Amino acid sequence: MTSLIDRLTVLDYCIVLAYLTILAVIGYRASVPKNDGKDETLFLANKSLGWASIGFNMWGTNVGPSMLLAFASIGYSTGIVAINFDWYAFVFLFLLAIVFAPKYLTANVSTMPEFMGKRYGESTQTILAWYALIKILISWLSLGLFAGGFLVRQILGIPMAQSVTVLVLFAGLFAYSGGLKAIARVNVFQMILLIGVSLTLTILGIVKVGGLAAVFQKAPASYWSLIHPASDQSYPWPAILLGYPVAAIAFFCTDQAMVQSVLGAKNLEQGQLGVNFIGWLKILSLPLFILPGILCFILFPNLKDPAEAYMTMVTNLFPPGLNGLVIVVLIAVLVGTIGSSLNSLSTVFTMDVYRKKINPNASTQQLIKVGRMTIVAGCGFAILMALAIDSIKGLNLFDVFQSVLGFIAPPLSVVFLLTVFWKRTTRTAVNAILSVGSAFSLGVGILYLWVLPPDQYPFWPHYLLVSFSIFAALLLTAILISVFDKNPSIYVPLASEIRIKPTRRVWIAWISLMITMGILYLVFH
Which sequence ranges are marked TM in the entry (predicted)? Predict the structure, then answer.
């Protein structure tokens, strides 16, 4: 496949330069503190985010470079079934907006460990803080940066070391200089750009095939089904129905990188509407990410590797002079994911480790300094890990990402669900699940991914079902520990934690989304 860099024209370079200039201006304007007498921080955008910024920023965090690679690859080989990982998410986004967000905002916390610490004490906060740091470093920064570097190398022919170094430094610049506010402002611009460029690629593909009717006729009928039989090896419906919620609850409801945008909301209503907005944006994953893969299957059915689907579409359909837009999108998805991850990393370390354990009396400026140092360290670690991952051969990016999350998620899902829904949950149960339960879950993951891989030991069920089994075992264990705890330490809600009912606007937005998703599932069942 010809490297895209060989086809760039003067117009392409001008497009990239214009994009970088606009990005720098937006980031600078968001980074310069206002003279209103308030201390600016890196971490929660001074509670200034509206619903559009929250939705675009959460989507920008979620839409990593793996989306462009993996979704097009799965669309090429299996059709639309993987869209369940985005469309099914509306259930858990609703849970975040209506159940979790009110508790987070009422508690007035900066991080998820701080939220749990207020309920179960310093030991719980410390355990969860270190677990969150490891999760961000591995599942967000390292894997996300590797996917971005892989895509840049695939399309532009730039070596992995150079790719990841330039990408992470560029993304880290916004987290370092302006924190969450700069990242959120930049992501609004970038996600609009992503929609425009990806939709252009899809439209060019549809025209090339001969129209939408021809697309439906030429692709296999099974490609248009969201629900695959239980015998399906790749995505059986029981695995998605039972296993996906475990990862989704941890990802959307408890993950610092995702929830941080909601914590930075102007008020609860804006936060709830912002979470609703990402539910609408996720509908676009079908035309933006999956459909290009299906179109590639129709137009170029003999690819040696489905992972080349996105690159094949780009290099064959984009006319000369517009390939710079592809480079722009690559930078956009990297800045969105890596920038948000770095900001979350700095927030958790600064607030839950440095301020809590090292310097409780730290000033705002000291916290900002430590946060920036953490961002620099995170950039270095991410580069080294991305290069280490690149040395492993034969990875299926999408399944690796999902399986890693599937083994990290069960302890988080268990403790947060019990904390919110069962008042009898004890500190002993929470700490046991976060420590011993996490070790067990990660240990099973190591066995599954490296020691006894399923391609050599077929006794394993689907990785999503393994994740669900771990979740069920940990949930039962936590309940039993709480019930038989002889000296239970149970959180008693404060009088200030009065449940705030969603506004009429919020209910209208969510009911509309639910109806729309129901129709989509009926159409593509």
Answer: 6-28, 49-75, 87-106, 127-150, 156-176, 188-215, 235-254, 275-300, 320-349, 370-389, 401-422, 429-451, 463-484, 505-524
In angstroms, the CA 388 to CA 48 distance is 38
What is the rounded distance in angstroms from the CA atom of residue 112 to the CA atom of residue 123? 14
Reported confidence tier of residue 42, pLDDT bands at 50, 70, 90: very low
What's the rounded Cα separation, in Å, for the pair 143 and 303?
25
CA separation for the pair 67, 397 (Å, rounded): 10
Q: What are phi and psi of 222, to 5 degrees?
A: -65, -20
Rounded to the nearest angstrom, the gap between the alpha carbon of residue 28 and the centroid of all alpha carbons in its chain is 25
Q: What per-residue confidence (pLDDT) applies to 179?
A: 52
Looking at the DSSP bridge assignments, the partners of residue 265 are 49
Which 3 state secondary structure label does DSSP give 498? coil
DSSP 49: B
Measured distance CA(173)–CA(62) in Å, rounded: 19
Dist CA 191 CA 457 (whole Å): 41
Tokens found for residue 357: 């354990």
**Residue 393 to residue 63: CA distance in whole angstroms:** 24
The rounded distance, in Å, linking the Cα atoms of 268 and 264 is: 10
Give the separation between CA 487 and CA 504, rounded to whole angstroms: 43
CB 374 within 8 A of CB 166: no
Question: Once rounded to an integer, what is the mean pLDDT over residues 222-229?
Answer: 92
Domains of the chain: 4-31+41-391+493-524 (1.20.1730.10)
Distance CA 479, CA 81 (A): 35
Is the predicted pLDDT of residue 54 greater than 80, yes or no? yes
